[in-house]
TrEMBL record:
Gene3D superfamilies for this protein: 3.30.70.100
Subunit structure: Homodimer.
Residues in Stress-response A/B barrel domain copies: 7-101, 118-212
InterPro entries: Dabb, Dimeric_a/b-barrel, HS1/DABB1-like
Listed name of the protein: Stress-response A/B barrel domain-containing protein
Organism the protein comes from: Cannabis sativa
Amino acid sequence: MSSSQNIEHVILFKLKIDAETSEVNTMVNKIKGLQGMDEVLYLTAAPLRSSSNSTSLAFTHVSHSRFRSTSELSAYSVHPLHLSIKKETNHLVEDMLAVDWFTDAFGGDRVTVPPGSAVRVTFWKLKEGLGDETIRSEISEGMREIKENLGEEVSEFTYGANFSDRGKGFSMAILAVFRSESELEAGDDAKKYEKFNEYLDLEATLVIEFVVPSQ
């Protein structure tokens, strides 16, 4: 497997406020059931514990999955089982957002995120006129330095430029896995990222957090 082809695939859902709890739970469990598909390296789904931004994108749930290549992601997207679950649960969904990015590694040799881990995903929009490859490259280089100096509380850290056309204008994404909720709460990502503020539309930044459930 070429490490350069690994893909993070994150989907955020805003479920309707009047959705029945039983239907929501069934939806989450059906999405988690897709973990068994041949194309999927890893997949989980969960309610959000926190969603912080100023754009009124009030998402409620997340699906996080990993793939070896764009071809396997594409095959998953059009697979009849995946499509049937989308059709069955579409009436519950008010809004959604999908972001995909390439990463050179996940958690070493491990591609799954252990249950009980706490995950923080940050989505950035670049300022108008800064969406070129030079700026993305500078940010990626800075992120590489941050990754090299992370504390042991962060077990995984990936980042990259979004290539999904369902990303609502978000240009880049960062995913950090913490060993526990308490370590996530103690982590101060904002200070690490201050060096990039000149490039970012800070008011549009979206940060979500969730705890990985048991499968």
